[in-house]
Write a structure and sequence with these properties.
Layout: E1 6-10, E2 31-32, E3 35-36, H1 37-47, E4 52-57, H2 62-68, H3 72-80, H4 84-94, E5 98-103, H5 110-115, H6 118-121, E6 126-129, E7 133-135, H7 141-152, E8 155-161, E9 171-177, E10 183-190, E11 201-209, H8 212-218, H9 230-237, E12 243-248, E13 252-254, H10 258-270, H11 276-293
Parallel strand pairs: 1-4, 1-6, 4-5, 8-12
Antiparallel strand pairs: 2-3, 6-11, 7-13, 8-11, 9-10, 9-11, 10-12
Helix pairs in contact: 3-4, 8-9
């Protein structure tokens, strides 16, 4: 089976959960320490040899393209001022991968955004990575998904156990365990009521699809507000093709959630050799003051 190299990153959402910060900048460009969230996603793709990258954008997302493009004026300024470290950081961003862009003309849901990649993907299997879902650098989730597809040829979803009261925020997967230990997804439902949810396994922001997902999206009726839900298309796909799951528990940050965003900034800052020790000392001092005040 040929190696998968294509990845689709939907980045056309309006980011309303993070207003007013996202009124004039894409949510995907929110900084996590000193890098925008989408850069972590693209770096994760590159680490897993997914070098043919399509970012699906929308109105007001031009800064994403600018970030991954060369900045001749900035490079010249850094060169003239002898700031070689910063210069290499800036240049390395433009060398990350073969990045393409396409506009999703209307915000008609995640399924519609994935469908916009049909011509680029062609007849090849591909990975979809949500731009506001970032993983810790030591996560092996995507590698496990690619290995499972290579062994089986199946579609693969990333699944995470969540508290039952939170399953209403996610697509939910009903699974069975095969004799060989493989997790097979038998049905999915979008944002179920916790009392009706078939499990507490949430579908998170990493997907591996065969190109048949496009047929499923095109033949699935639109739902609320005329949007095409990717979950509905996966449900239809599972009736004709195997859909498997890789269950994980740690290393994920939902940048679209304010508390998760703050946790990502704190935890990733603490892991940095350059600022981690000093930041840890500052956190201890802040917590000590809080405990004294209470």
């Amino acid at each position: 089976m040929s190696q998968i190299t294509k990845v689709v990153i939907p980045a056309a959402g309006l980011g309303t959960r993070f207003l007013p910060a996202t009124k004039a900048q894409p949510k995907e460009m929110l900084p996590v320490v000193d890098k925008p969230a989408i850069q972590y996603v693209i770096e994760e793709a590159i680490r897993n040899d997914l070098t043919n990258i399509l970012v699906v954008t929308g109105r007001g997302k031009r800064s994403i393209e600018d970030h991954f493009d060369q900045s001749f004026e900035l490079e010249q300024l850094l060169t003239e001022s002898g700031r070689s470290t910063e210069l290499e950081v800036v240049r390395s961003i433009a060398r990350l991968g073969n990045i393409h862009y396409i506009r999703q003309g209307r915000p008609l849901g995640l399924g519609h955004a994935v469908l916009a990649a049909k011509a680029h993907v062609g007849n090849d299997p591909f990975v979809t990575m949500l731009a506001d879902d970032i993983m810790s650098q030591d996560s092996d989730l995507l590698a496990r998904m690619l290995q499972l597809h290579h062994r089986t040829g199946a579609n693969v979803l990333s699944l995470m156990e969540v508290p039952r009261e939170q399953i209403r925020l996610y697509g939910c997967a009903e699974i069975v365990q095969e004799a060989d230990g493989t997790t097979r997804v038998v049905s999915v439902v979008e944002k179920p009521d916790p009392s009706d949810a078939p499990s507490t396994l949430a579908i998170t922001g990493r997907y591996l699809f065969t190109p048949q997902i496009f047929d499923a999206i095109e033949t699935t009726p639109s739902g609320k507000n005329g949007e095409f839900q990717l979950t509905d298309a996966i449900e239809q796909l599972s009736r004709t093709q195997p859909v498997l799951g890789v269950v994980f528990q740690h290393g994920r940050y939902d940048i679209g959630d304010k508390l998760e965003y703050l946790r990502a900034v704190v935890e990733m800052a603490l892991l940095r050799e350059d600022i981690g020790p000093a930041f840890a000392a500052d956190l201890r001092a802040i917590m000590a003051r809080e405990f004294e005040a209470s």
